[in-house]
Specification:
two-stranded antiparallel ribbon, 434 Repressor (Amino-terminal Domain), alpha/beta, 294 residues, 2 domains, Endonuclease, Chain A
Length: 294
């Protein structure tokens, strides 16, 4: 599913869609129609459609009335839905710098998530995680994509990707736990000099107290995450379920429900346990860097 869906001038956000699906599930379980739900909150059928598809922010009174109408009396569940609605409203109102950067593209929603997140766990098969990339590495990736031909556009893309990394510093910095395949460290993106500088940067970032880096070496063989790369975004609020982000060639995919997010988290943890410890990872990165000559 794409990260952001559009309906008119309304944006369907990750959190909004998840909230909408939960309300839809409750309505279906209660055997109620959209028309009946609309009458309960004095709205139109189209309003219920927009709510269930995550196209509009939701008011707490509407959520409470619908839950009561659907027979949902569990206060913990209702509280979780209200917290989800609050987080979604905050995301929609946020005026982050990325909203003024058209080059952010599909990355904009991930940046918005990271801006309010507590932790990101990133697993990468073939690339250095975006939060750890140098400008030269990011530029080489943008050029190799072949999507952008204008050098100015490429520079603006690089600027967005570098500005995103500010979240790793300052007050309450984002916690980054990155597990990277050895293949990503050896792929000569931009050539030996660019890659050697990139590995030196990774080593520098590994010294930060909020950054943990592990390497999955070739010798480990098969592992749970061998088929795909993804990031798990976690929030401070106890009621906020982890959100999983993954890029494909054609689109951005979000995993937005509790069960699937938990599966991704389990797979990440298993892969991390099979990877080298942070100190051993640093030594391997150093050795790979020493073997790269311009």
């Amino acid at each position: 599913m794409n990260g952001t869906a559009q309906q008119g001038n309304r944006a369907s956000t990750v959190l909004g869609r998840r909230l909408g699906r939960e309300l839809l599930r409750l309505r279906d379980a209660a055997g109620k129609t959209q028309q009946q739900a609309a009458q309960v909150i004095s709205a139109t059928n189209s309003k219920i459609v927009k709510m269930e598809r995550g196209w509009v922010p939701m008011r707490d009174p509407d959520i409470r009335m619908m839950c009561e109408f659907y027979g949902m009396a569990d206060q913990k569940t209702i509280g979780r839905l209200l917290e989800l609605a609050r987080l979604d409203r905050e995301r929609r109102k946020a005026k982050g710098w990325w909203q003024q950067s058209p080059q952010a593209g599909a990355l904009a929603e991930l940046i918005a998530m990271e801006d309010v997140a507590r932790r990101v766990r990133a697993w990468q098969l073939s690339l250095i995680p975006g939060l750890l990339q140098t400008s030269e590495y990011a530029r080489s990736l943008a050029v190799s994509d072949g999507v952008w031909e204008d050098p100015d556009d490429i520079e603006r893309i690089v600027e967005v990707r570098m500005r995103r990394q500010a979240r790793l510093s300052g007050e309450a910095p984002l916690q980054l736990y990155a597990v990277v395949s050895e293949a990503a460290l050896r792929q000569l993106v931009g050539g030996p000099k660019v890659m050697r500088n990139q590995l030196e940067h990774v080593l520098e970032m590994a010294q930060l107290p909020n950054v943990r880096i592990q390497v999955m070496p070739f010798q480990s063989g098969g592992h749970p995450c061998i088929t795909t790369s993804f990031s798990i975004v976690s929030f401070t609020e106890s009621e906020a379920v982890d959100v999983v982000h993954a890029d494909t060639i054609a689109s951005t995919v979000w995993v937005e429900n509790e069960e699937e997010s938990a599966v991704c988290s389990t797979f990440f943890d298993r892969t991390a346990r099979l990877s080298l410890a942070p100190k051993d990872s640093v030594r391997l990165i150093e050795d790979i860097g020493k073997g790269m000559y311009p």
